[in-house]
Amino acid sequence: MPRRARRLALVLVALLVIAGVVLVLTSRPRLEDDRSAVEDGWTVQLRTPLGDRYQRLTDVVVQLREAGAGDRDVTRALARELDRWDELRRASDPDVAAEVETANRLEGLAGRVNASVATSPRLSGTQPLTDALVAFGTSAPSAPAVRDYNDDAEAYQKTRQELRYSFAARIFGFDAIPALVLGA
Fold it and tell me: 2-40 and 163-172 helices cross at what angle (nearest 10)?
């Protein structure tokens, strides 16, 4: 009897291992499809308009420096993030997650710049700076493109977190890709 129980246990363990391997391997296509939708939405619909938008933000940095605000933390941080954005854009293999994270930081810094300019009589009275901020503010990508991308990113994240897919996501390196948060 003990021999039979051991064999049965061994067979059950083998079946569980096989079922686990099959589950992991059959999960990969869904994860790839969801991630591809996010990456395509980013590269096709958002990457170029955001590149134009951040070129206008580069103009804001130039105007901040000319207005005497080049030594402010927000100006230096904005210049660093713009350099990071340019570096990511020049890469031969786009890293969508890193680009989105950088875009989100740029948007947050742009909000800080807007607040700084609005509360500074000297800066708010500098017409080239306010013109550069207006040009940046009116250069947002289309709302439907942002919404579609964010919907795809949310769907991908939900898939990654589902019990059936979470183990495969960790094994195959399906890392999170954040949503885009336009602020300024």
Answer: 80
